[in-house]
Structures are given as C-alpha cells and as structure tokens.
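Researcher: For the record, we're logging two predictions in this thread. I'll number them. Prediction 1 follows.
Model: Prediction 1, sequence and structure:
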Amino acid sequence: MTFSQTYRTALMAIAGFLLMAAFHTGAAAQANSPQGVRNIVIVHGAWADGSSWSKVIPLLQARGLHVVAVQNPLTSLADDVAATRRAIALQDGPVLLVGHSYGGVVITEAGNDPKVVGLVYVAALAPSEGESVASVTKAFPPAPLGSEVRADAEGFLTVTPKGIAEDLAQDLPDKEKQLLTATQGPTAGAVFGATITTAAWKTKPSWCVIAGNDRAVSPELEKAEAAAMKAASITVPSSHMPMLSHPKAVADLIVQAAAKAGSH
C-alpha cells in the first residue's frame, strides 16, 4: 500500500469515528431533552443582568434545552418588553419564558407573544391588567431591601452593598455578593410604576418558585400570586436569588414546565 493510500485510509477511519461520535452525542442529547418546549428565554430582574442566571443556564443546556438570557436595558418597562420580544422572535419554535423579580412583570406583558406557551416566575412579580410593581406590593409590609435603594440625579436606582449582602442575597457567599454588587444594573425608578396592559398568565400555563426567605419581595405576595395564577409552585428556603442559591431546584422546575407547556 502506497503512502497516499495509507493516508486516505486513515482519513476515512477518522471521518467514520467522528461521524459515529456525533451520532451518539446527538442521540444522548435527544434522550436527555424533555419532550416539549426546547427554547427557554430567561429574563433578569432589576439591579441585575443575564449573569444572574449563570448557574441555571448550564443545567438547562445539559438537558438539551436552548437557552437565551435577555439583557434588559432597565430604562423602562416598554424597553424591557421590547428586548424580550426581540429574543422571542429569534427562536425557531415555541418558547417558555422565565422571569425573576421585576422580570416577572416583563414576561407578564411580553408573554402575550403567540410563540410563548408557558411562563415561569422565580421570586417574581406578576401584576394583572392595570397593575404595577408599586400597586401589587402596597398591600404587604415594606420589604427590608427598600431602605437600601438609592436614586441618582436622573432617577435611576441602585442597591447599596449592604442591601445586597443583607436583603437581596443574604444566603450567598461573600464573593457572589460582591459580584452582584459590581454587575447590578441601575434601574429606572419609573419601571416600578409602569402598568400591565394584558396579563399573559391569565391565558397561558404558569409555574412559580417562591423564595421563602425573600427580603426584596414578600414571600406572602409570591404565594398570593401563585394562587391567583393557579400556578404549580415550589417553595425554597432562599433569599431573593433562588437561581443562585438553589439553582438545581429552579432548573428542575423549568425543565418540568418546558415538558408540560409543550403538551398543552
């Protein structure tokens, strides 16, 4: 056998090996993927960015799901809804929308997109028509976090390092608290008074993660919302950041929601 023949034979063997490896990898991913919605669009809340989902995203990807984290400008509710709708439009099929905190308000409005087949609220707010963050929280005791919010000259709000350490993420390690402080997105105060036009949760199946030790949104409000939505819910002993303190529980619920939403 000449050198060129040997080389060609070796290349064919390598190509065959790579083809088989790709086949088995694809089959494994298919086996791990839930039957249902494949596209997960995740929406962060106020004083955060997409990195707040850094622990949940790999868990969802490992289950064969396609995940996109929206980067909200946090300049107005309309701007944040528009950013979320752009992310939805880029998906190649049905979408499960997931929102944390104020991100729950965003998905309540953006979730009316016909491609959205389900909603997951994580320590989130879920106003009805004509309601806002300010109005739905009024009936509950003020959250401790509120005293650690500061406004700048242009009306954008930030949380003090003390507020993040003690009221937003009190159950996270110091390094993670410092990272949240450094990456927090200043949030226009006006977003908290912006009202919902049409509440998507009234027509689409919903799931909730209730943060039992939340000091930013009242756990009682989260429970009342879940009851109003008739949502399947779990409660975790978490701060306002359950996707960072209990990522597996949050990811598991999203996987369950993706499987069930696709069957509706």
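Researcher: Logged. Prediction 2.
Model: Prediction 2, sequence and structure:
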Amino acid sequence: MSTEPALLLFQDVLGQRPAVDLLRRALKEGRLPHALLFQGPEDVGKAAVARTLAAALMCERNAEGDPCGRCPACRRVAAGTHPDVLQVTRLPRKPGARRETEEDEEEDDDSDATTARRGGGDLKREIVVEQIRELCAHAAFAPREGRRRVFLVDPADRMNRAAQNSLLKTLEEPPGRALLVLITAQPHLLLPTVRSRCLPVRFAPLPVRALAEALQRRGVEADQALVRAALAGGAPGRALSADVETRRELRDALLGTLEKAAAGPSALAELPALVSAFAPKEDEDAFLERLDLAQALLRDAARAVVGNGGADALLHADQVGRLRALGSRLGRARLAELLSALERLRGDLRFYVNRTLLTEAVLAALAGGPIP
C-alpha cells in the first residue's frame, strides 16, 4: 500500500462549491489574482483546497484547470516538497525559550522560516516579521519548475502587526509570478489594508445532513455519518478524522459546564471547578477546540430558543432539548452578547491573554456577571 500523501482534487472537495467554482473558473480563464484570502471556520477545507490550487499551477499534465494528482509535481505538492510551493506558519519554539513578550518571539526566530511546516510540539504564538521578509524576498524569484510561485500563509491571522505591515508592499506591488494565499478562520484579525488587497474566497461549514450524506457516499454507515457530521460542527476535515466517542464526551461535558454556569449567581461559588472542567492545562490548540465547541453550542442554543428552522438547523440536533433550555435561561439578547464577546476574546488569545482568566470571565458572564 502506498504511503504517499494524497492530493485532494477539486472534484473531491466536500461542499464549498462556490469557492471551488470560483477558483476553477479563474484557472481556466487565466485570471487568477496575485493574492487570495481563504476565510472560514476551522477544518472546512481551506488548507486542502489551497494545496489543490497550488498543484493545479504546478501540474505537468494539465495546463489549466484541475491537477491530475498523479504526476511528480502533484505528488511533491502533496508531500510539501515542491520548490515553488512554500508555506509560512508558526515555528516551533526552541527549548528553554522565554515566552513573555513579542520581542522574545522575534529574537528567537529561525532562519528557515519560510519553509517551516506546521507540526507538533510547542509552537510560537505568532508569525513574525522576519518570516514575512523572507517570503517577500522569495516572491521576487522566478518559479523553478511551475507556472507560479505559491506562498501559503496559515494561519494568516497569527501574523503580528509588524509582519502584516511587512507584507503590504508585496501585496501592493506583487512580483509578476507570485501567488499569495492567506488562510484564516479569523479574518477580522488581519489589518484592513491587508484584507483589501486580497480577493476573498469564503468557505462555510456544511449543513449537518448534507455532510452526513457526503460521508455516506464515502462508505460511512448512515447512523455513524450523522453522528460524525453533528459532532464535527459541519466541518468535513473534523468529521473524517475525529474520534467520535472522545469528541462526544467532550461535547457533552462542555454542555454540562455551560448549563451549570448558566444556573445563575449561585454558580459563581463553583467557578473554580467549572473553569477546571472547561480549561484543563492543555496546549493552546486543545483549548481553542474547546472554545470553538462552546461557541457552536451557544449558537445552537440561540437557534433553538428562536425556533429558526427546527432541530435540523442545529449542528448538535441530538441535544435540542438541553440547548433550548439553555437558550431560554440565557435569553436571546444575552446569548448574542456572549457570542460576540467570545469571538473577540478568541482573537485576544494571540495577544497573550491568560486562558484561565478568559474562561473565568466567560463562565462568570454565563452566571449573570458582566460581559467581558
């Protein structure tokens, strides 16, 4: 059995028809812009589609349109080794490096910034200016083998302000054969001047039933497909890879924590235990997963109490009774304020907000305290 990483072809992308059709049309007409902003929730396929787009520009068999997925160029794009497809992401933190300030991040930067790949381990909080300067220098070079040089910045919202400003000149006066793809779940954290110089390509979660049907077409049994789609929040990548039982347990535990916090001022006495249940000492990615899941549950609670579209409109329709009770207890106005605050606080995490304090503020607000 081959161990080579598979390249997702445009025809195999789950959902995202508007995004895929836009990119295919631009490729066929030769009108692909110099900078794209792939924006949408986590795990809905943004990074995979970006690699497919890069492969389409490198493919040795197709001059335009879809990549073949089989030629040496396509295989190297899939493996992350093509010389004309470079990724910028957060770098691993050096052992013993200090964390306290943004300056520490800058001083601890690595020289191989542009070609670093996302991986495990303790990552720096930000993409720093030296990485973007290196990207801009490489963008001026002609492609070695492909038709374009493609730079994938993921997650783009982790560029600090200096890094974003450093990118502006390349965005304003792009080298003729460079393509920049910024990938983000939080486009509002990018400077308006950065966003305005990119063509937005929007990605969205799939409705639960549509995702379940797509999973069934891939051989997943009907009951399992519906459970996976619901627990994944409509995100195809998560639905395909998630440990269903582990995610179900996490979802139910978080919903229980939200219910206890929303019981009223009496819940404040239990705040330390609730915080510990919501935000145990894990890495940042694990905490963000919990935060995203909590947001999805609160959105469902808001939909349930409004009755917008019935249970089928909920990502977590199997918990409609509990979600409706939670929504009724909090009320539509309070839920809207909480969701807005959660989105803002999620962005603030990149500026070294303490996760425990953030969780305390959110759960206290659920109990009737001030909105953080």
